Amino acid sequence: xxxxxxxxxxxxxxPPTLFWHGEGFRLERLPVGSxxxxxxxxxxxxxxxxxxxxxxxxxxxxxxKPLEDLLFADMKLTIAFDDVSLPLPAMKAPDIRQMxxxxxxxxxxxxxxxxxxxxxxxALHRRMTDEELRHCLGSRVFDSFSPHGLLTxxxxxxxxxxxxxxxxxxxxxxxxxxxxxxxxxxxxxxINLVAMDGGHKSVATGLASYKSIKHHHNPQTMVNSKxxxxxxxxxLHSSNWRMGRLIAKSGVKVFQIETxxxxxxxxxxxxxxxxxxxxxxxxxxxxxxxASKLLGHTPRRVARSVFHSILSPHAMTSVSAGEVEAVHExxxxxxxxxxxxxxxxxxxxxxxxxxxxxxxxxxxxxxxILVACLGLGYFFNMYRGRxxxxxxxxxxxxxxxxxxFHPVHHPSYIDFFxxxxxxxxxxxSISERYxxxxxxxxWYRHLYRTSYAYHGVHPFYMWYWCAHALDHLSQVIILGGExxxxxxxxxxxxxxxxxxxxxxRHYVGSSPSLTHLHSxxxxxxxxx
Amino acid sequence: MRALVFERNLxxxxxxxxxxSVSGSGKAVSKSPLSFQNVSPPSVDKPGWETVDVLACGICxxxxxxxxxxxxxxxxxxxxxxxxxxxxxxxRRRNGSGDRVVIESVLSCIPRxxxxxxxxxxxGDNGNCTNLFLGSIEPGLQxxxxxxxxxxxSESLCVHGSQLYSIPDxxxxxxxxxxxxTACSIHAVLTGHISRDSTVGVLGAGTxxxxxxxxxxxxxxxxxxxxSAKYDFQAGLARKLGADVVCEPGSLVRTVRxxxxxxxxGSVKSTDRFQNSPKSGVPKSLSEGxxxxxxxxxxxxxxxxxxxITRPKGTIIMVGMPARVSVDLCPLWHREISxxxxxxxxxxxxxxxxxxxxxxxxxxxxxFTQVSRRPQPKMVRTFDLAIDLVRKSALGALxxxxxxxxxYIEAFEHAGESARRRxxxxxxxxxxxxxxxxxx
Amino acid sequence: MLEExxxxxxxxxxxxxxxxxKPTWPGSxxxxxxxxxxxxxxxxxxxxxxxxxxxxxxxxDWVARPAIGTLAPVRVHGVDYLDSVDGPVIFAANHSSHLxxxxxxTSLPDRFRHRxxxxxxxxxxxxxxxxxxxxxxxxxxxPIERNRVDRKSANLAIExxxxxxxxxxxxxxxxxxxxxTQSFKPGVSYLAKKTGVPIxxxxxxxxxxxxxxxxxxxxxxxxxxxxxxxxxxEPDEDLRDFATRIETKVYELAHETDESWWKARQGAARGTxxxxxxPKGSNWRRSWELKARDxxxx
Lengths: 528, 440, 298
What we know:
The structure holds 3 protein chains of 3 kinds. A 7-stranded mixed beta sheet of chain A has the order 1-4-19-14-16-17-18, sandwiched between helices. Chain A has a 6-stranded mixed beta sheet with strand order 7-6-5-10-11-12, sandwiched between helices. Chain A contains 21 helices and 20 strands. Chain A starts with 5 loop residues before the first strand and ends with a strand. By secondary structure, chain A is α/β, with parallel strands linked by helices. By secondary structure, chain C is an alpha/beta fold. Helices cover 46% and strands 11% of the residues of chain C. Chain C has a 7-stranded mixed beta sheet, sandwiched between helices.
């Protein structure tokens, strides 16, 4: 029986606390009285995932017919799926998408559907490599579709393959992939890792153009999404829902298949990452010592490739299919069932250790902008109710934050870091003064469309992701970060936790309360 | 008289070359053919020539190249051994007036007493003089490479009256050292290739780079001046002197692309997972680029970089003294780039000064010979512009340190790594001159 | 010297902090009752893998045998009885010293020796991880619950015998407290019933003198191992009766050792085999009597 999340109050008898630190770890002694949030233990996986998928397709939820009844011989069927940014880390084969799509195609084959196209719902993310596509779809699907050009990746900059469906009540453009919009049925295959994934966001963002996405990916929306992980208080969510409803009204028939994962994030030999420190057995301690010593003597690029080759033993905990909103309600409940932990009261300081990976650097480098985004965008926003840290509080992030970028995946990030952040770190003025130039830069567009680059505007979104946190906090301190890149981000740099706390005291008073997010695996705090 | 003398000594020359390549620029002075000696003062008994006392003399990049033994062999026939190097000279006249002067060190037809002068000297472009090995004195392109005249790294030397420019009182002895390199920079800026809407890239932020930046801003005022500076303090100085954008050399290509919004070509399509070697992130060249690039370094790398950031039909101006370089000229050919040199100074066409509201300075040009080569109307001596610019932009601050002549080894070492030590221009000061100053 | 070393090591270890030492347990967190991995729950499977067996064979043949040979030279009788059995057997012996196991193990013929396990008290030999590891490696010990009926440990023994392992068992359920033999418990008959293998009675003589129960010092002395004829459980025999039969057989072997084979056969036929349970009565009298025997047969 997996145990629920746990809130430890640090006392003198508590062992040191594990912090992720990029491609490494730190053990830190938190001040007595600090709170440490441990995520709930992984839920039990579905015993027969394929059976569960089949069942979900047979008996959909909401106003939807079984998939079998929606398919007919001469139809245009499009299957869209989440891209390489999910799940994190990549899961051991078979990937959920592979299982779901195979089941869908099985039915489609039975019903004699000939015109089938697969689309990776990239939004403005980088294209996936063939290897990544093969991993996520499995060889059977890949080899049946890729050679015939039927395995495509959404291109948000291809004017010929986008169609404008209209404006929402708030005047937001809705422009999505033409093939998806003009199909008789669009099946969307989703993986829900965190509460903001899925729902209408799948199609309304995943298959949309820049013109459409910019309506909700902007500083105003982000500041008003408190948090964007909580759909009832997320402006991002509302905007996507408006768009999703418009898409439905325009006659695009979406059959949504959503899945949730348990938090069994790291394989056996990294077991210590998912355990509470006082329960570390000899094996875990040896694992930790071995890993940290080895990593200390490994060149970073080697360490990086070791980490990025980790395949996670994630397992599916639920699958549901049918009408988008009904499906998503079930999904969100299941995500929360796995991730929720109740917390009473906010604290002055929130500490967190960031790992080597975030949604935007799978098989890539976690550059300083992504560090900010993961810490202030994702981890900070893992709350419902109120943030874990009070207004005017301080966040302490542990990550090496090296001035390193992946030149192929993140070309516009380099320029953003060199030019934009050198000028200002204010999301609003950044969006006013620079966004358009980057978004329309022909070189970035070219790289996004033909190479493996994130869209030119993507670093801006990463920074907007932080907007709510930047607005809420009085200071961000990066523990163990590289000084010049941390300075460029506009944050403070500390080499030890004591120094970091010393700096923090300057902002929050002399005896601050502290909460540590013992994550990943991910958790979602319900703060009352 | 005590002076630094550079002799023709092939073994020592070879030794210096080996040592400097191993231990770094300026570190091989003690092995080089340069030595501190007691020599008889030079005297040139020719009309118009006089002896002046050195107040200070800057160590130029070409002086460093000479002692590092990496200078081009091109100069072999237009120098005369043994010579006293040093051509960024500030001196005091002995004629009773006690005037402080800077010296336009090119030894052209006029100081050489050649009449009629070559066609370049006849029009005032004495930097291009073709008679550098003729006339009444030994061969030598400049003071500092000629046996007869002596050079700046000594207590006194002989100069021709036509080479002298009085220094205004508000420029100190040491500060005035920067006038000569400023003149070189101005000469490069006023080649006529830069217009007011140009984007100009300046490679390097040492003495030349910074002087070029200042000259660009005050004489042309182009749309964008981009300077690549290796060190933070250089970046700060460049900004102060009028650079719009300053970047590190590593991000130069990207920065230029941002300014022009073109495409960057290079190894950016590979899907190698973690290409984080420092070079892999640098695009090779740009589809668009700077209109003009002023290369103040003159190395293989800087010339290649210059080509990769110059737009098609653009211009590269070489100010830094190059030697033998190894460069792929294909982009030059394909993009029809002009690569032009800029040596020393002479006179400048005022119509090429484009900065609005520019007031031409009065002349401090001294002519004491029968051959009067006063500038034509609308023409001005480069040195006059330089003195004016040094005053206006306070370029004297770029002289970072001075050493007494006998501590020349330290001085050259410092000059060899001046940027790393947060310095720009290093000068040598003869002890006697110093003493005199103290007694004054 | 050794003590000094261990104390230094201990001090060193104490200076180490987490993760080099065990984590401390926060006071506010309740310690869950862990299912024990010791006692009857100890998983000794590893000690029956190839490398452990190889190590054990080396220990028995190259360490234990020479050691026993010098400290307590063994004379072995009745090995010929074993020739008649193929397949696994259970050796049931009297038990008065820790040395018994080693003496018996080293005296077994090859084909038994290297495929032999020892039933050892779960509460005594498997109460610490270190001890459990050591005994299962050195003697192939498996944990047996000796104070109460425990299906788990019995099942393990049965399963292993079925797999072809021989088993040494001391049916007294522990070393004799005073030197006199205790009555045999019927557990051994239960194993015989469940597995159908023969029981080989074994009398061990002299081990008590070499290493008495409460002593840590080994005295030099000769020992004897006497194997008896394998016994089978009769179809309708009561388990207790069978246990008694084995016990009696062991006494016959003792009698044989003390006097002669002929005397022992006579005694057996007449039912006058002297038992080794000692006289009833106060403790000193039992010890007195035992001492007399020891002197007689030295």
